[in-house]
Structures are given as structure tokens and as C-alpha cells.
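#lab-general

N.A. 3:47 PM
ok so I finally got the sequence cleaned up, no stray characters, all 455 residues accounted for. can someone with queue access submit it? mine expired

B.Y. 3:52 PM
send it over

N.A. 3:53 PM
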Amino acid sequence: MTEVVTRFAPSPTGLMHLGNVRTALLNWLYARKLGGRFLLRFEDTDASRSEAEFVEALKQDLQWLGLDWDGEALFQSQHAGQHQDALDALAEKGLAYRCFCTETQLGLDRKLATSRGLPPRYSGKCRKLSKDEALEKSKTEPFVWRLAIHAQEGEVHVPDTLRGDVVFARRDLDDPVVVRSDGSFTFLLPNAIDDAVDGITHALRGDDHLTNSAYQVWLLQALDLNVPMYLHHGLLLGEDGAKLSKRTGSHSVKELRESGLIAEALVQAMTRLGHPNIADDAFDIAALLAAFDAEHISRSSVKWSNEDMWRWHTRLLHHLDAAVLLPLLQVHLPTANLDFTSLIAGNLERAEDVLHYQYLLDASVPFNDDAQAIVNSAAEGFYTTALQLWQTMDNCDWKVWMNAVKEETGCKGKALFMPLRVALSGALHGPDMSSIVNFLGKEGVSVRLQHVLKP
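B.Y. 4:20 PM
back already:
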């Protein structure tokens, strides 16, 4: 069997967004599952919009996600000569031609076709020009290059892992533009040629590319080049049902990384979209790879959920070793230490939640309104009694102390428990009180009780 080779081929014209993540992840999973290679190729032929800073940003995002690529990163611009050779070969065979129609003329033709109940395709007017006529005309008039695909007879078969052969009648296909009037190539030809040059065997992408794939299969077959096996999965939609992209408010990976998201949470949430057979306890990438099966990816559209991503973040956060979690917390609370991290880890949903518990490290931190209200509601003399009993105890036993306070003050239930919790932790919820008392120690508990007794 030929080695599987997939690719992620972003345009370095902006930051990586969630749609990019899905494309990269599925191609990476497919290659790694089958022991193949995963290539990174930057489609940088749009020189006016491609920027080196986005190349580096995309690399950084992939590395953060754990999506390693094989070999050096490739650049589409390095294949410019092969793109031109392909166009010349198509033109020589009469399969590509110059089109001189203006935007105004094209608009009128589309309106005319629509008025006749026909699809608004290109009329094919410039296909009737001879090569000599087109060449002479090109000396004085602007033009684009089109592929001569539209025909009344014939079919294009797109091989697809999920859908079998997807058949397009050539009468339903247009003559697409492959070179703009400024001489730059559109997506279609360079992307297809690069796949052939780079030895891509499988290309996983959204089903919005199905028609593009038909054009590219026709083009590759016309040049006697290898056609990859495609896998056109359902589109990634936002929670509003619209296609999710960087133009419609999709999060950038940089934004998510800077928000403190654990990279594996994004990988977990994204891998499971449209892939229902992955067990809930597949917590690491090895488990995801073992469960991944490309033939089970949904052909229907799937909706992204920020809530699911952050739910995975919380689950993974709770499974982190304290030494790994500590640096994440120190971004928000530099004074956090290992013992403190071990104490509060199970009560965090996000790293910034550490700020809810900073009173455990610093008794001068003011209470929030809810905590202060609990302190104010304590029975008269409650904290004085609690402090006196604490100072007479030989050991730091939470239950013994609490029962002694209960006996002495007559308080019970929330009237007993909540004033003590808030006085020691500064929060209404958190770690169990025995752990808090052990963490603070004799002196730490005394300091906090004295703090709430200050007028």
C-alpha cells in the first residue's frame, strides 16, 4: 500500500481560526493513524496579502496544539514554475483559454441566463476565439485564463472516502477562472498541482470544496497527474447555524491560547465533532488516535460549542499534575505555590479562578460583597469564641474545633459552617475545610480569625 500523505495548506494571510484547526487536525489524525506523513504547506501565491508573521503564527499554533508536521514547511510560491508549466500544457491542448469579457459583460450575461431560467454560468464566448486571435487580442486588452471544462457531454468523478465516487456532469460545471487579470493564480490550479508535486494521497476538507474538487480532478487527469483520494466532511457551523470562519467571528487560536485554554481541550472538542464513536474517557491524543476512524466522520454539518470546549478544559485541568498546573495559575497569581495549587486544583474551572482563593495566601485581600455579608451575619461574639477555642487547642483538627464552636455558641448548620469557611478561605465555596485548616496551620487560622475581628 502506498504511504499515506496528507497536508494542511493554509494561506498565511491571517491568524489560525477554528475552521483551520479542524482541517489541520483531521488531516493530522488521518496520517498519524495510518502511519503516514503530514505536511505543512503555505499557499502564499497571493503576495499582496501573505505575511511572514502569519507563517510564524500558524506554525506556533500548530505546535501548541501538538500537531507536528513532517519535514520542512513547504511554500506554494516555490512551485510557481510548475504552475505556469501546467497552464501552458492545458492551453496547448486547448483545455485553457484567455477570456477578455469585462465584469460588466459577465454581469449582463448572468442576468440574461437567469431570466431564461438557466444557471448564471459563463457563456463560453471567448472559447470561440482561435489561439492566434486570443494572442493578438491579449496584446492590447486585459484578460483572465479559464479552464475549458463545461461541455454538454461527459462526467467528472471525484473519489471520496465518505461518499464513494461523487459524479458531476460537465454540463453542470462552469469554466472557472484560474489566472486573474493581474497574472496571479486563483486557488484551483496551484492547489491541485502542489498536491501532485508533493505526493499528497489523501485530502480531507469541507464539503463546500466538492465542486472545487471536480475542477481539480478534471485538471489533474488532463495533465496525467495523480488524483488524491478526498474526504469531504460536513461543514463546521457556529452556534447560530452559520458557517464558522475567521470572517464570521470564529475564535483565533492565539486568542484561545492567551485566554488560558489548555490546548488538549480544543483538540478533544474538535476531534469529537461529527465523530460520535469516541469514548468519553479518551483523555489523551493516543486514545483519540486509537478511536479515530475517518469513515465515521459525519457527512452532515456540525455545530461548534464553546461550552463543550471549556467543559473539556475543566476536566483536563482537574487531571493536571500540580507541578504542571502551577505555571498556569502563576500567570494570574504570581504568589501561588505548589501546596496551594494542590489544595484548590479540584475547585477550578479555568486558571483565572485562582483569584477566588488568593485570600488563602494573603489575609489582607478584601472580601467580596457576598463573603462580607456572611461575615456580617455571624452571631455576636461568634468569631471571638472561635478564636479563643482555636488558641486553646493542641492540634489543628477541623471537626473537633467546629464542634467546640457549635457547643459554645449554639450555632449550627449554615450559621456555623459558612462564617467559618468565609473567615478562613475568603470564599463561599472551595476545598473541604479540613484541607484548608491543614494548609493554613495554627498561625494561619489565627491570623484570619483576627482579621475578621478587626473593627
